[in-house]
Amino acid sequence: MSAMDSATANLWINAHFAPCLRALAPRVERMACTGAELTLPITAELVVPGGTVAPQALTALADTAMAIACAGHFRAFRPLNRANFDVQFLRPASGESLSCTATVVRASKALIFTRAVLTAEPSGKEVATATATWAVP
Fold first, then answer.
1. How many CB atoms lie within 10 A of CB 126?
2. Which of 25, 80, 118, 132 is most buried when burial is the number of CB atoms within 10 A of its CB?
3. pTM for this model (two decimals)
4. Can you point out the beta strands (E) in 1-137?
């Protein structure tokens, strides 16, 4: 199994992420050295009154996708420290699932800059964007 395939990345989630995150059931669909695409099923537990997805679930998916994108950059999981994390909620999210595409924008020896776009499926509407800066220990 290559360190760049989605099966390996899903093992990284099971091995290195908190149980509360794993309970959301994120899944790595695609993996590359420049980024990753994850999906998250929208379940009743994620929906708040009013019928939309809780912002915390969107934030958790974006954070996870950007962390996996960093792992893809290194071709192995490495613990990193968040120096900055910012999310912009564009519209309420609803549907069957969420898709998050995270990319490594720039990487140096000390910092990695990432960006994520979250989309509601099946509508294909963007519901949030996020950026994060990661300090490389």
1. 14
2. 118
3. 0.94
4. 27-32, 35-41, 47-48, 52-53, 81-89, 97-107, 111-121, 125-135
